[in-house]
Every structure is written in structure tokens, then in C-alpha cells.
Amino acid sequence: MLLASPALADDVTLPGPGGVALKAKLFRAEKPTGPSVIALHGCGGPYPKRDEQWAQVLTEQGHTVLFPDSFGSRGLGSQCTVKNRTVTVSGLRRDDAIAAAKWLAAQDFTPPGGVALMGWSNGASVVLSAGRAAPDLPPNLFRALVAFYPGCSTPLKNADWKPAAPLLILIGEDDDWTPAAPCEALAGRTPSLVHLVTYPGAFHDFDVPDTPVRERTGLAFTAHNNGIAHAGTNPAARDDALIRVTAFLEAMPVRE
After folding, report:
1. pTM for this structure?
2. What CATH number does domain 9-250 carry, 1.20.58.340, 3.40.50.2300, 3.40.50.1820, 3.40.190.10?
3. N or C terminus: fewer CB in 10 A for the chain?
4. SS3 sequence of the chain
């Protein structure tokens, strides 16, 4: 899929958990018609090549997009090789996501009816954590959830886990960083709420444009517990995802 000129971002700061100043990139839609989107980075932190692509696609479809930086806001770099993390999926990253969603929902340029939460890899795992139906989650905060290649093993162990809004999971069938099988099992528990799309021959980061598949080593968590995984573009999967995600968001009803 060919894209037009890149979207332009504003640097914003919003109140995060524990008094942290949560830095973020805000991409405004010229004519906001669909739900605003909080977009959550992976373990490497913000990834401009992927982020700007999605910001462009989504803003062109009427979605304002906010990219909070959970790691940089706390003086941290990439966490992909770090096993004992201080900013965790179910801890500070979940709190960041909910804080960002509340802030974005309160802006006058955000259409009413709930925001969408979207993420990649570690950020997709945050989508499963922050988007879980839970007593402390504000009702109807999320209109839709989108998770690219999340780690599904942890929520799968929780018999009470279910999403608070319709959830779209997209993952490569050959992903050896966050494997597809646990996501298939998780989706099978709540098929009315979770739509799973698996892509044959696709690895991690399949939606990043123009990035040849390469082997990553020294990673903290991988499918085979050996620190080795592959990541890179799968053109067919990428093209499908760009269309599928925007269609999914467009179909989401307003939450009252």
C-alpha cells in the first residue's frame, strides 16, 4: 500500500501515574470522525518507522492518534533485553495507558463515545492488560482494542480475563518472539469479543514498512526462551492489516 505525505505531530505532556510527566506525540486528524486512538510502543520504545505509518493511515481516516512514551518519560531506553523491568505491562504501562485514554477522551477534538487502545508487542500486551474488564477501569472508556503480536500467555492463565471492548488481535503464524498459539487459545474463550487474525509466513513487526526480516538476539523473552527471534516486514500481512484495522475501528459503535 502506497501512503501519502506523512502526518505531522505535536509534542504534548500529560499527567501520568505517580506524578510522572508522560511525554507523547499527538497526531491530529483534520476532520475527526472516528474514535481517537492511544497507540502503545513495544519494548524498544517509540518506533518512528512504524508509528508514523500508522499515524498517517489513521489520521487520514479521521482518527486522532496519541503515542505516549512510557520508557523515555522515565529516562529509560529500550527494554527488550531487560528481564527485570520496572515499567511493566500490568503495572506502570497499564496505568500510563489508562491515564492517556482519560486525557485523550477529555479533549474537545476527541469524538464522544470512547477511545480506541492499540499497541504493538509489549504495547499490545498492555492492550490486553489495560483493556481487560476490571473494577478499576472507567466504564466505556474504550470503544475498541487492537493488539499487534501481543504476548497472550499471561492473560490466558487468568480464567477471568475478558476484554472490556471488542478486541482485534493480529499476529504472524511464524512469530518466534510472541507466539500465536496462546492468542489462538485466548480468542477461543471469548469468540464474541475477540477477533483473531493470523498471517502465514509472518514474523514479529510484519507491519513495519520496508524492513527485511532479520534475526534478533539477546532478547529477554522469546517463544523458545533462547533470546532469539525474527522480525521484519511481510508485505501481504502489512497490506491486509492496514485495511483491516481501519475497517475494524470504523465499525465500532459509540459507547454510552
Report:
1. 0.96
2. 3.40.50.1820
3. C
4. CCCCCCCCEEEEEEECHHHCEEEEEEECCCCCCCCCEEEECECCECCHHHHHHHHHHHHHCCCCEEEECCCHHHCCCCCCCCCCCCCCCCCHHHHHHHHHHHHHHCCCCCCCCCEEEEEECHHHHHHHHHCECCCCCCCCCEEEEEEECCCCHHHHHCCCCCECCCEEEEEECCCCCCCCHHHHHHHHHCCCCEEEEEECCCCECCCCCCCCCEEECCCCCCCCCCCCEEECCCHHHHHHHHHHHHHHHHCCCCCC
